[in-house]
Design goal:
CATH superfamily of the largest domain: Glycogen Phosphorylase B
Distance between the termini: 23 Å
Number of domains: 2
Structural class: alpha/beta
Mean pLDDT: 92
Helix content: 25-40%
Low-confidence stretches: 36-42
Strand content: 5-15%
């Protein structure tokens, strides 16, 4: 057997696509232990591998731990106990920093404290963009290897020809209103611009929980605003539960442009899926979306950036409407990129294992 990785998680599409196409026996990732809730939707949540007790009980079952996601609500002291347990059992620890600001946390303090523990303890740090690597060095004095996000969409959909439709369809998906989403100002701005873009329409999707809102003020405000705009005929509102993967790919392929209504963030799997499918993305000027894949950025409504370089949402949308850029991932390039990612991760695991052996010999 090759190098065995305790991956947190293993089943996420990002992690699954770190394997070479067709798989490899040189790197083996343990399956996710069942989540505490026991339901298929919570298969890896909360991640049992993040418990120091799990490390103590399963230290003989893996060679390296690699953390990606799942520590959202872990107290920093619990993460410190985890890294202490790994050190006690001489197990190298690799961290991929996907989020420098957690999109599920309204305030940054907890995530900052969590990253402080994890980045400091990691034997190797990975991130997705040069800007994120520079921020990691600035904040914690650690170098991070930059490795791109792998493709999200699989074949044969990755190579499927885009369907044709009339008009110019703009999409905003408010999902389940996680903390970094503030969609109403974005939607209202687009609605105000539609008359100046003949043939343009705005499709807004929301998960069922948003429109039910259960008395939560933020969801109630958004639900009320969306219902009003739909009643006025200004938006095409779709309310539904979570899309399956196939439904999501069909939805994204039906759009000319997907607008991300984020107040803050770092990287985006949604952006990667759009790139796979040839849907243009309008991304906010926070985070490092523009370094990740081709997209058009806009200044978050109501904010002032120090650079002052990002155009307004109106100007950015107008550019896409007039230029109709055609950015789409090349399937062969995506497969080559995936093979390179598998080789790069294998090299990192080999290096940290060699370092661990040198420290204990």
């Amino acid at each position: 057997m090759g190098v065995v990785i305790a991956s947190v998680p293993a089943g996420h599409v990002y992690v699954r696509h770190l394997d070479a196409p067709g798989g490899s026996d040189r790197v083996v990732r343990l399956p996710d232990p069942p989540g505490a809730h026991g339901s298929p939707a919570a298969q890896w949540w909360p991640p049992a591998m993040l418990e120091a007790a799990w490390v103590h009980a399963h230290a003989d079952a893996f060679d390296v731990m690699h953390v990606h996601f799942g520590f959202d609500h872990q107290p920093p002291d619990a993460l410190r106990q985890l890294t202490d347990a790994l050190r006690e059992h001489r197990k190298p620890f690799v961290l991929t920093v996907h989020d420098l600001r957690n999109p599920h946390h309204g305030e940054p303090e907890l995530h900052d404290a969590q990253l402080r523990v994890l980045v400091s303890a990691a034997d190797a740090v990975i991130t997705l963009t040069p800007g994120a690597a520079a921020e990691i060095r600035r904040r914690w004095g650690r170098g991070a290897q930059v490795l791109p996000h792998p493709h999200v969409v699989d074949e044969p959909t990755l190579s499927r020809r885009r369907g044709e439709h009339d008009g110019f369809v703009i999409g905003v998906h408010v999902k389940s209103l996680r903390a970094n989403l503030d969609p109403l100002p974005v939607i209202e701005r687009i609605v105000g611009d539609l008359d100046r873009m003949p043939g343009a329409s705005l499709r807004v999707d929301a998960h069922t929980d948003v429109m039910r809102h259960d008395g939560r003020p933020h969801q109630q405000r958004v639900a009320t605003g969306l219902a009003r705009l739909a009643a006025e005929g200004r938006i095409d509102l779709h309310v539904h539960d979570y899309f399956t993967d196939d439904e999501l790919w069909d939805y994204l392929s039906s759009l000319d442009v997907s607008v991300l209504p984020y107040r803050f963030g770092t990287h985006s799997g949604w952006l990667e899926a759009c790139f796979d499918l040839g849907t243009i993305v309008l991304a906010p000027d926070c985070g490092y979306y523009a370094e990740q894949r081709p997209c058009v950025t806009y200044a978050v409504p109501g904010t002032v950036r120090a650079s002052g370089e990002a155009p307004t949402l109106t100007a950015a949308l107008r550019r896409v409407y007039e230029e109709r850029p055609t950015w789409r991932a090349d399937p062969a390039a995506r497969q080559a990129e995936r093979r390179a990612l598998a080789e790069a991760h294998e090299a990192i695991y080999t290096e940290v294992l060699a370092g661990s052996s040198a420290c204990t010999s």
